[in-house]
Design brief:
Layout: E1 7-12, H1 17-28, H2 30-35, E2 39-43, H3 49-61, E3 66-75, E4 82-88, H4 93-101, H5 107-110, E5 117-122, H6 128-138, E6 142-149, E7 151-158, E8 162-170
Antiparallel strand pairs: 1-2, 1-7, 3-4, 3-6, 4-5, 7-8
Length: 172
């Protein structure tokens, strides 16, 4: 029996901020940049595809477009674990969507506290030495970029081409 491709739920960061994020990603993690656009992950591994469609549609319909701010660069413990930008969520839009969708999360991720972030350098696609050089440059960087978010995407991993949107739900 074939294994279904992995699915996740994300908020894509649109241009012009997404373009600025991708400039950093292209320099330090071109492999992940080629696989998926800049985003904030709400659900890493969807456990029930049918329920995901229903829940994401309902969550999106019940949420208005909102603005977040991408702020300070940080890393997960060791720089080799990855670098990201913090997400300032003043209206609670990201945290509210995550709370409404958390039941869709695969158990191993559900046990990890949610931290809204936008990944710059991913541990699976960047060598530790490259991540360390990236951190040497990004340490102290604060983006201060406001981003208006207006849709939630269910994405699926295609081993040949990377992540692709399978369903998009506009907020409100």
């Amino acid at each position: 029996m074939a294994v279904e491709p992995r699915r996740a739920v994300v908020l894509f960061v649109p241009p012009p901020v997404g373009t600025a994020v991708d400039e950093i990603r292209e320099r330090w993690d071109p492999v992940m940049r080629a696989r998926i656009g800049p985003h904030i992950t709400l659900v890493h591994d969807v456990v029930d595809r049918t329920r995901a469609t229903e829940r994401v549609a309902a969550a999106a319909a019940g949420a208005a477009t909102f603005t977040i701010r991408l702020t300070d660069a940080a890393h997960w413990g060791k720089t080799a674990y990855g670098l990201y930008l913090h997400v300032d969520d003043p209206t609670g839009g990201v945290s509210s969507l995550h709370a409404r969708l958390a039941a869709l999360e695969e158990r191993r991720w559900a046990s990890v506290p949610f931290r809204a972030h936008c990944t710059l350098v991913h541990s699976r696609t960047t060598e530790a030495t490259v991540a360390a050089r990236a951190w040497a440059e990004l340490d102290g960087f604060s983006a201060g970029w406001d981003v208006e978010l207006g849709a939630v995407d269910i994405v699926e991993m295609d081993e040949r081409t990377g992540w692709r949107t399978v369903e998009r739900f506009d907020l409100g």
